[in-house]
Structures
1.
Amino acid sequence: MLPTLQRLLLTVAYGSPRKADGAFRSEQVRKLLLIRRNGIGDMICTLPLIRNIRAAWPKVQIDVLASESNACVLENLKLVDHIFLYRRGKGLLRNHYFNLPHVLRPIHEQSHDLMIAVKGGFSPLLGTVAFATRIPWRLGYVPSRGHPMDFCFNLKVELPVEREHQVESCLRFLKPLGIPQTSCDLSIHLDPAHVQFADEELKAAGVNAGKVVLFNISSERGESRWNSVAIAQTAQQLEKEFQLPMVVCGLARDREALKEAQRISAGAIRRAVEPPSIHHFAALAARSRFLVCGDGGPMHVGAAVGVPVFVLFSATDPQIWRPYGVPFACVQKGRFVTDLTPTEVVAKIRDWLPTLP
């Protein structure tokens, strides 16, 4: 009774999906919509899925509904045809459910044949978004024990029993589409201007590419941020023991923390940088010996440019969210990165450095 009532309520609120005729056949797909909201790391972990679909279906129109924060990952990759932004409204429209008709209006005009709700798990909100697209074939994760809103998807992937990386969870969507996995490419595109920016910043810092540690101080989550004193002390130890100076970077809102870390580092931090985009940050990371950051989007940017990444993890599960496909090490202690000491971090780096290529 409950699923029937929920289906009725969603139909009244958002309309009914177009009818899916017969069994799903890939040759029916002319237009595909992928939904990937949330942060930069989420979109980077989705790139292998998009690349495999594009390789298998070169003539299919592939569109993405992205968040305002992660759409930038797709810039200049030429993998998708259109990017629709999931913008939050104001007032009552701050509510996802009230805002959906406005968000999905341009998508309804496209008449997609298939949509994929990309997430490494089931979400009632994402199920609602999938249903509200009105697209006939809707692919997404559902719990093995079922859920009252399973009806939002008519192509279903059961949640894996074992914990696995987000990239691997995303790639599971290939099987019901009949698409073989031919690559696992997370790379993003860097323009010459991005590379030039990184080279100029390193020159201004007086350091050479490949012989500097880049520390990203920014994080959307407070529990994943380290303090300036700890960063400065770590920089001093890394330069003294390994002759590796540090460059710190972050967003404009982190400016005071960046300046403080540099000021109290006694010269171990050679420069504080505010990259104007994730691509400028990625170019800096690509020029470093390794990247140090909290758990979040920056570690996935490091993976996207193939640089070793050392992560200060809060309560996030490294098995699911570690930087994928690159040399990686981490320290984790409690729920907050601030629980970690510079001595503990440097000790782990000391063990990890000899393993790097």
2.
Amino acid sequence: MIIDETHPLEEIMVWGEPGIEALLGQLLPQTRSLFRSYYEVPKARGEFACMSALIVNEGVKIIRAKDATAELLKSRVIPELPDSIRALKSALLQRADFYFENYRLAKQNDLLNDGFDLTPADVYAAVKREIDGILEQDIVVYGEAGALRLNYLLSLSKPWPLANIFYGRDQSQMVADRVILSSLRWNIRKPEVKIYKDALHTLGYGAVIIDIREGTIEGGDVAMFNGCCFIGVGARTSLSAVKEVCRQIGDSLQAHNIQLIAVVNARQEEESNFFISPTSEHMQVMHLDMFWIPLAPNLVMAYTKEMDEREVVLVTQQKGRIITERLGSFRNFLNSRGVEIFEVNEAEQKNFATNLLNLGNKKLVAALSSNPRVNAELEQRGFTVKYAELTKLVDGYGAVHCLTAPVKRSVAQT
């Protein structure tokens, strides 16, 4: 049950650490992978482990969708599954060869644009070298048969490796007492939803899953706060999907006295319908949690330049009809509800200041300690801030909030 993102956190779901699928993603151009041009996956795995330990040390239970997926794969018939770890490794290297040969020029341009002193050949060599180490680690955790099945699913069973799957908020979102299953915008990510749906069934959430069959919606655009279910509409989530949410759980939200509020950047939503890949602007503010986050019952942190591009739309259902009512700017709507806005600047927003995990009781897990002004003000306001130091994981355009999906918070703030 999630009623408000500022309530004390008790249990979250994560995918797990990035794996070989993320390694293969390093060989794809940014327009396909949705990453920045390169990051070191082994170091990112270490960051994920440290972040998880930090959260557990705060008394929060973590459940891992990756482990649930590995468990259910044990009994599944998988066509074209390699017959051994050796055969799997050979297939993974062949896939790496294919990506390197076909995307070398685009990758070179990405690396130059991002200021890396690397060539595609350097990245290719690192990927091939690191496959062995990650595969060995997976064998320790899941056994040979489990590692074989899991890595085939994530890296080889689809046209593209599921390189972004570890950003585990996007695929689903707990809204009150229901789990909204996402409909993801870009092709490389679409297969993630079925994997999460199966994992959610395995973890006991099957009875409360809601499928969204119209439009697109991603979990990073959904936040419960101040008596509202806010859903960002823009580069990744469409207004048609918000209306579908209203059709399916509008009565449930109303029973909990929660309004359904779309936070709309109409230009970005329209552009996303026509673009074949996301723009850098879209990536930087792709979700609501990239520029806005609740901190306390009457306090949010926000990058107000993007916030002021957003209009609030109330979405309701009356006698089977979906009604939309425009309520003005996002800033004015929050001000009218007595919500204070702690403003961050463009540099702080790009450094993932708002993409934090709220543990409740004025405790936060921030992505990086390298936002000194923001961190100092949070502490002055009485917040305890823990720093996950996700220097590699953020190169997939996501941070702590993107990596974690709360499934249980205390009903009331303590």
3.
Amino acid sequence: MAPTPLTIGSRTFVWGERTYIMGVINVSPDSFSGDGLADVEAAVAQGRRFAEEGADILDVGGQSTRPGFEELTVEEEAARVVPVIEQLAGELDVPISVDTYKAGVARAALAAGAHLLNDIWGFRCEPELAAIAAAAGVPAVIMHNQRGREFHDVIGDVTAGLQASIAIAEEAGLARERLIIDPGFGFGWTPEQNLELLRRLGELRQLNLPILVGTSRKSAIGAVLDDAPASERLLGTAATIALAIAAGADIVRVHDVAEQRQVARVADAIVRGVISRPNRLRGETDGLS
């Protein structure tokens, strides 16, 4: 049974019909992926290009979360993301997500026009974020972050973490059906554990919530490819995306929208039995029969 459809901004996402693409816009000069943008206009231009390439959601973040990252103040992070969100929200009919775990940044981003909260700590760092999402009437992505936590079992730890986040959300009045889950690929796992997480991804379907997977350019891919740098992980990322879709991923968060949208379209044709027609309205699909 597919999760309940979810409206984000002006669009309704029907889970199971096809895979949705979330394009990453890093307004940070020290992004691990090498695509960080410190200039507002450059970030807005990237958002426009991603929309043209078929992104279904634009995910704007200003705080680098690479290992050993420097923590920004709320004011510094908001100064990076708010102008970008304001411009994109004013120009494009594409849902905009704000990637933050700080309540102050979340409020500013929602006021600027964001339609979705994306919290890498799943409300377990600042539970107030759940109440903010509930009050604003927006859904949220809750990620399990394994950093600093005791390891027992990959999927067991992810499931327990996500259930804790779901409980925080429901207590704050944010309905379960308004949540998207992210297992947290690359956050606190060894390369081997990351690969196991992806291999066992289908086990998370028991939670009956839409699954977002963010493997794009992550170091685990580099480890498999003889320590390839982030700039040389495109095809490795493509492999992880295809396999994630086969395991039940509903959204893939990527740095290379045009290329990975092709991967998703072919994977959907195989796994879901549908072919996306580029000359039709985005989101419409035809059965292979």
4.
Amino acid sequence: MIWSDWNKADKTLLLALVVFFFSLCVHLQYPHSVVADGMLFCAEAALVGGIADWFAVTALFRKPLGFPYHTAILPNRRQAFIDASVTMVQREFFSRRKIFGHLDRLKLLPLLMGWLGQPETEARLTGRLVCYGQNFLLEQDVATQSASLAEKIRGTLLRLEPEGFVRLVVRWLRQTGRDKDGLAKLAAYGQQLAGQDSTRQALLHLLEEYGKAQTRNPLAALLASFAQAVDLVNYEEAAALIQRQLQSMLTELETRDSALQQEMLELFYEQAAGLADDPATHELLTVLRDSLIHQLPLERAIGETLQQVKDYLLAEDRAVEPEAVSEAAGLLQSRLEQIVQQEYQRTLQLVAADETLQNCIGDFLYDVIARSALHAQTLVGVIVTKVLSRLTDEQLNHLVYDKVEPDFLWIRMNGSIVGSGIGLLLFILLQIAH
């Protein structure tokens, strides 16, 4: 064994042995010297005390010098040691009193709210929720979901009363200004048709037919022929004049907020309100509504939309997607993220403002953590038992010895120190007795 491997207690015991041999030599040289006798007496006591404490400490972990009786106490009592360790951990470190005491001192809900309110936490959680939403969309069967959504949309539309639907459309047109835009587009389209030569020919045909209908008796026919002969009645000029007047009227109707446009819209709203309350109109609108709703290709439209969204989410290079699909799917994703963020913040605000809800959440957290800690009490005991049972005797000795090694060394050193002191005291008492 190298000198540097010796601990302080071993060096102290070796020093006591050297002092003992030195004192013995001095005593043999000066057999009648009181100092030599006292020195030898103290050295003997120090050596015996050091050896006794070395034997006692060593006997805890192994058999010193092979002595078999009541030695190697820890290896022989390892099960009792394991049971005591488990009991100490469960009853002292994880006792119900300490667990509940620590939980009472913790403000669980403020800690949770503070953590949830951090921007990093919000971004991470909302990102995961959006990812879950996207995965949910990807896992859905397009045909099944299309049929289900189409059925729900049809059911909702069929429950709408025609009158209410008309009123909603009218109100929407007025609030958004789409009524003026729609009328202007209709007038522009009518003006385009009115300016065509076919329109003038149609007007000429109508005037001629009207003239024939009004001149069925011979006298009227004679007068009409005379008027046409002297150019008093010219159907072509009349048709051209009507065409110009019609174009002028349509131009005014196309002009936004013009008097004619306002009058036409008011007439439209008045007639629409009257039609909504008419029983015959109600029946007609109901039939038209049912026919239109059942003929709408909702399944195909919804299915194509869902499939395009799935293709967009699955595409690695989203730039290759059609621009319209990319834009729509991107808007859907951004809207989903916006909804999740808004609901996340709304939930935090709701919890912060509702004291009853705070108490419910706090009690729930306390109950969950307390139950988990109590289950951990048993689990920790099982873990400690398994870990200590797997250790060899040497590993178990090191586990205990390494934790209290300085104290054991001082116990051994104190044996020599205290032994020499007691030896000195006894020698003085003996000298006094003599």
